[in-house]
Description:
Layout: E1 11-13, E2 23-29, E3 36-37, E4 42-48, E5 51-56, E6 61-66, E7 73-75, E8 79-83, H1 88-102, E9 120-121, E10 124-125, H2 138-147, H3 165-172, H4 230-245, E11 248-256, H5 258-271, H6 278-290, E12 298-301, E13 306-309, E14 315-321, E15 324-326, E16 329-330, H7 338-353, E17 367-370, E18 390-394, E19 398-404, E20 407-421, H8 427-442
Parallel strand pairs: 14-17, 17-18
Antiparallel strand pairs: 1-8, 2-4, 2-7, 3-6, 4-5, 6-8, 9-10, 11-20, 12-13, 14-15, 14-16, 18-20, 19-20
Helix pairs in contact: 2-3, 6-7, 6-8
Amino acid sequence: xxxxxxxxxxxxxxxxxxxxxxxxxxxxxxxxxxxxxxxxxxxxxxxxxxxxxxxxxxxxxxxxxxxxxxxxxxxxxxxxxxxxxxxxxxxxxxxxxxxxxxxxxxxxxxxxxxxxxxxxxxxxxxxxxxxxxxxxxxxxxxxxxxxxxxxxxxxxxxxxxxxxxxxxxxxxxxxxxxxxxxxxxxxxxxxxxxxxxxxxxxxxxxxxxxxxxxxxxxxxxxxxxxxxxxxxxxxxxxxxxxxxxxxxxxxxxxxxxxxxxxxxxxxxxxxxxxxxxxxxxxxxxxxxxxxxxxxxxxxxxxxxxxxxxxxxxxxxxxxxxxxxxxxxxxxxxxxxxxxxxxxxxxxxxxxxxxxxxxxxxxxxxxxxxxxxxxxxxxxxxxxxxxxxxxxxxxxxxxxxxxxxxxxxxxxxxxxxxxxxxxxxxxxxxxxxxxxxxxxxxxxxxxxxxxxx
Length: 452
């Protein structure tokens, strides 16, 4: 329950700052015992679902105790900080203030404090209410703006009428909500000055770069233990869940992208942007998923024993960062053109690398693409981004012998590896889906228009 509070008014419990979140790792305390804090002042940075989030103070006061240290994993609804107890007079005043602010006629109309999770109000972390407005977190309000939904017309299904992400998405799809007006034009992220290239002539190919994280063994020691923390801990948990739950199998093939290479160079010259193969791969995938292979655009709800098919294609783009692998999401990729996809990839990938991505930008994908070829290697056996049912690994494009209409020539070959959950996707379906992606990449002119 998001609004759970301690029976001791001086003990602040770690709030539920994400739907279904059970724990969070303290990355850095921003205060110490003895500090005087203001209401809404950030107390700590915590790691939740791959995103950094600040926990704001629910009140003004002096910090008596921190119930953890940097690196600790703390449970939701367990003591987070303890405040020094006020005098009886102060306590009475604080109680009166609390009762006053909990009355609808006295709801605070202050603006969001500007933290990631916003103000603490009505017992819900990050939920703000202004006169005439519904309860919702800043992230949900931002999502509503992006989708062209009037959030004040959405009926919330959360505690106390709180509008949840699912409510906004239901309203955007027209389910259980007033008809939408024409949404505003999608805000395109700033153009990418440079996108990583997945192809280079073999003779001029640079040596692969070493990973950003290097093992540092202390001088004179034979070994060194490193705690599994932060993003790495979350990655480990999710991969373990995927391997333990999904039944993985992989099909592999190569696409002759010689014509695609020429097309992307022409498009780059015309647009003034440097474009990699990846946006074209994304476009080919969305065409396949919105065509005959919608089975792969799905997630599994194991608790309900159901397969959830999705109409829109929300592409997860596996991104290597200094903190580990993250999967930012390009939403509604099936409605975007190649250049739009390229710009969105650059935008969400950079946000993931500098850890400014919002939680909703790191969740909700329906299919994931891993561009392993941006580093090195050809084929792969990628681990499915559970609860999705499929993931495509793109290897490094190389020069090789291509046979077309009985003639040999030197062309560019792109290795592709499609891993699927055999509980949902049959082997023949996966092989045919990969064949369709290959066909689209080998006939690239049709990829220039949006999928629909």
